[in-house]
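During the second year of the project, the team shifted from modelling isolated chains to modelling whole assemblies. The rationale, set out in the original proposal, was that interfaces cannot be judged from single-chain predictions alone. As a representative example for this report, we include one of the complexes processed in the last quarter. Its constituent sequences, exactly as entered into the pipeline, are reproduced here:
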Amino acid sequence: MKLKFNPQDLLKLRNVRRVAQVFFFGLFLFFVFVTDLRYLKGYPVSLFLELDPLVSFATAITTHTVYMGLMWSLLLIIPTLLFGRIFCNWICPYGILHHFTGWLLGKRRAEERERIESNRYKKLYSLKYVILIAMIAAAVGGTLQIGWLDPICLFHRSMSTVILPMLNLFFPSSIYVRQYFHVGAWIIGFLLLFLVGMNVLIPRFFCRVLCPLGAFLGTLSSVALWRIDRDTTKCVDCDLCLKGCEGASDPQTQLRKSECFVCFNCIEDCPEDALSFKFLPSLKQEVTAPVVPGRRAFLGTLIGLGFYAFGRTSGASARNYDKKVIRPPGSVEEKDFLDRCIKCDQCIRTCPTNVLQPAWMESGIEGIWTPILDMKLGACDVNCVLCGQVCPTGAIQRITIEEKTGTGPFVKEGPIKLGTAFFDRGRCLPWAMETPCVVCEEVCPVSPKAIFSREVTIIKRDGNPITLRQPYMDPALCIGCGICEHECPVTDEAAIRVTAVGETRSRDRRLLMDGGVTSAVMDLEKRQR
Amino acid sequence: MSHENHSGSSRLPEDSVSRREFLVRLGITSVLIAGSGLAAKKLWQPNHFVPGFEKVKGLQLKSYAPEISKVLPSLAIAHGTDHEKTIRAAMAALGGMGRFIQNGDVVMIKPNVAFDRPPALAATTHPDALRAVAKLCFEAGASKVIVADNPINSPTGCFFKSGLTAVASEMNLDLMYPETNSFAPLSLTGEILKEWTFFNTPFKKATKVIGLAPCKDHNLCHASMTTKNWYGLLGGRRNQFHQHIHSIVSDFALMMKPTLVILDGMNVLMSNGPTGGRLSDVKPMNTIVAGTDMIAVDAYGYAHLLERDIAELTYLHKANDRGLGNINWKDTLYKEVTA
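Output from the structure prediction step:
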């Protein structure tokens, strides 16, 4: 084996690609890290999600619109139509993760023959197209489910709910001032470990077998103009081109363009110079389009439509909605929310109070890993709209603080309400236990306060009188921020709890007929001045 | 004996163990046996304990109070419209910042940043007040100024929106968030407060402590001023304090012996406290009160800035009765000036 250093090797395509991979992976990590109130400034932290054409395509199906920055996905469609799936092996941070971990854990020390065998195309690899078809069918039905496996959503979600909290656990206050917790994070964590670990059995398992974005880009690349071309007069059928083939795209025989990651390893590994990346080569010795049997495609469609129908008819997004589905401020109405939310959990990453949590079944099977507020873990800071700023799809609209608080030009509309707080007098210290408290009133952030108290003198069990304040709730003023529940000293199940009813995003789920701008407010204003 | 020797030597040489190997193997086994015995003895816990009732040995907070002066006033009231000028006037009346801060001092300024509010709502320490006080500290020779608080809303959000993050970076102040490892148990012989989790990291370096509080209405204890401001140095389950709020707040006067307290009454939160929320809750009173006795400072603030009857402010009376301060501010050496 020669170990001589040749400066020209630095310019090998492999090394150019590695530089791109390090750059884009670093950029992704940088964006993830700065998605925090302290560092956010104006960084386009959702850029990778906005570049993701599956996000814009699928949301265009469900909402008939392309929201704000999702227009950037055009940038990615064009090179795919020209060159094929370069995204998968040059840009995609999740693909780069699997490339790297596959190299680390996989067969890099194995014999040449073994490596070649592990990179042959398998029928299993068409599964991703069935997954894509099912997700698109679900979107046509009216529920957006690409977030389960879209690599950018999946990676952002893993970062927000597992990786960063884990780093902070090992290095306290490195990521968060105080440790963040995420309900059900272990499920997301084990899924990540499983997908990474599968690289041991099948290199690039996620990218080859499951990735719906890969399937989407693979479909587009069937018409790509530049393709790997094999000169059959030079080829000696040694199969060495398979040694480093990332996509398992059979460059040694009939190239499967839709599987090709355009990593260029085959060109550099070919001892005979038989392979080249060519403009408009003959398609005669290619499998030009994805191979998905019609019946599998039909099955995928049924699964997708079934998912939509079974989820919807379970009723969790309609009359049978759960009181815990308290959505972030600026969220659109629940059915539209399920049309838009890609479960990327960028909102959860940026939330400064840890109140945002990945849902489990609260909004039905459709709503898994979408954001909901858990007042036990945090509360919605009134002067904060960060979640909407980073939401790439408009599930949480990019509202201003004035729009949220109903101030400035929005006095007439009033504040956005996330839900309504209800007292549980049986657990409340002044109501049930002869003990002064009213922390809830103290922290209530609206003016006039939604929580007010009345002074009463009661005879205690020991016969002595005590004067204390008993709290009440004015539903017209409550914005459902949950700080009362969060700060209640009854910490296991608070004596005041916010439930979803009364949220302004849905006309069906409001509580008061006049929407909240009641005479009570006017009366209080008069009384206080 | 010789027979055994004979049979031993007849075995193949590779079957026998050399003396060296014999000693090494015996040694390893002996060390492991002895080691596990020693480790077990060291780790052995022969007695049980009752969970939750272990004895906590908390830290004692030292006094940061300045020397008592018989000639210089202990309370200054300054009226003016500009934060910096009025604070300077108040400090000049007390004898200048040099009386409190000397060359090389590390000053911990404790603002009240409990809520994520913009400065105009007067629910938090005003950035102009922090800037002015920090400037005076540096002028007096302070080597470093620390700013720290444990807010109710998210710490980063509170400091950011109150405008204090900007002042801290502009003036190169050391902003300390209440991080996971920032707390240590504190011991006190208060009326209610005995042992509590304390925001300790700022006090590892600080040589002087200045309380810089806004003047606010409070729904439960009537007012939040310089005494109540120390609430932000505590961690843990603070929401239990409200069950004995006046005792707890008077205990703060025992807990903290600051170098100086400054009550910012330029804009006073008159109603809907302690959070406020509307500009109409705020009233301009154009006054700064500074002094070494937080009870006297708060007594002035309650009567003349919040314009209420001092008789109802139980915690001040409790502190006064325990000798922790003087509620009759007019009896102290005070000076009233106009900027």
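The longest strand of chain B covers residues 208-218. Chain B has ten helices and eleven strands.
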